[in-house]
Design brief:
There is one protein chain. The protein is about 65% helix and about 0% strand. It is mainly alpha-helical. The protein has a domain at about 65-220: Tetracycline Repressor, domain 2 (Orthogonal Bundle). Helix 5 (about 80-95) runs antiparallel to helix 8 (about 120-145) and helix 5 (about 80-95) packs antiparallel against helix 10 (about 180-195). The chain is elongated and about 60 Å long. It holds the Pfam family TetR_C_24. GO terms for molecular function: DNA-binding transcription factor activity; transcription cis-regulatory region binding. Keywords: DNA-binding, Repressor, Transcription, Transcription regulation. It comes from Nocardia bhagyanarayanae.
Length: about 230
């Protein structure tokens, strides 16, 4: 989306092509030889930057979660109420299917693999951080009297988990836009949480100002470099 192509030998270009291959074929179907061939570089250059295929996947995971956390924190700062914050986070989870689609699909295809990481790994810590942001929004909504009491930890996992399957059925060029599907998710989720549902029609409007504000937040970083520091331990 207007991003200038990175130089083939740079780590960011390697990560970009690897990410697209994982999105299209999965981790097991992706190889250094395929990435190197497309970039016109040697496999040794990929090894120089990332070491192993597993470390390249971890770089994908870390870069993806860092950006999602940054955006979630901006959403929390941007919207004044837990209800609006939750709606915005829900819209964002669907809008990623269009904005940053390759990284989102690659992450979601391999989310079960990421779940097997060591507790102390950076990727797992980043996922906990992201889930903590969402859980805090739920808890603050209960405290403020906007949400009915729920098990915030379980509800957070249910919301996060449901979003990870969107890659299997959502079509960017399909009948429903990401905004429209996001509106359904907002209606479904907040409909089960809100004590007073008066704000629900406004928040579940796919053409409303809240959606426009979320798009502005998640597109602000488009075009920024995605490479990470050397991942070789």
């Amino acid at each position: 989306m207007g991003r200038r192509a990175a130089e083939p030998g740079r780590s960011g270009a390697i990560l970009d092509i690897f990410t697209r291959h994982v999105a299209e074929k999965g981790y097991d179907g992706t190889s250094f030889s395929g990435v190197a061939s497309e970039l016109g570089v040697s496999q040794g250059l990929i090894v120089h930057h990332y070491g192993t295929k597993a470390r390249l996947l971890e770089a994908l995971h870390i870069s993806y979660m860092r950006q999602r956390i940054e955006e979630a924190e901006r959403i929390v700062a941007e919207f004044p109420t837990p209800t609006e914050r939750m709606a915005a986070l829900l819209y964002a989870s669907m809008l990623y299917q269009v904005h940053d689609r390759n990284r989102t699909v690659a992450f979601q295809r391999e989310v079960a693999r990421f779940a097997q990481q060591e507790e102390t790994s950076e990727g797992r810590q980043l996922r906990r951080h992201y889930l903590g942001i969402m859980r805090d929004v739920l808890e603050s909504g209960v405290v403020s009297g906007e949400f009915r009491p729920v098990d915030e930890s379980i509800r957070t996992l249910l919301i996060f988990g449901s979003a990870q399957w969107a890659w299997t059925w959502f079509e960017p060029e399909g009948r429903r836009s990401a905004e429209q599907v996001g509106a359904e998710l907002v209606d479904h989720t907040l409909g089960s949480l809100l004590i007073d549902r008066t704000p629900l029609p406004r928040l579940s409007d796919p053409e409303g100002p809240l959606v426009a504000a979320v798009i502005k937040i998640i597109t602000a970083g488009e075009g920024a470099p995605k490479e990470l520091p050397d991942t070789r331990a």
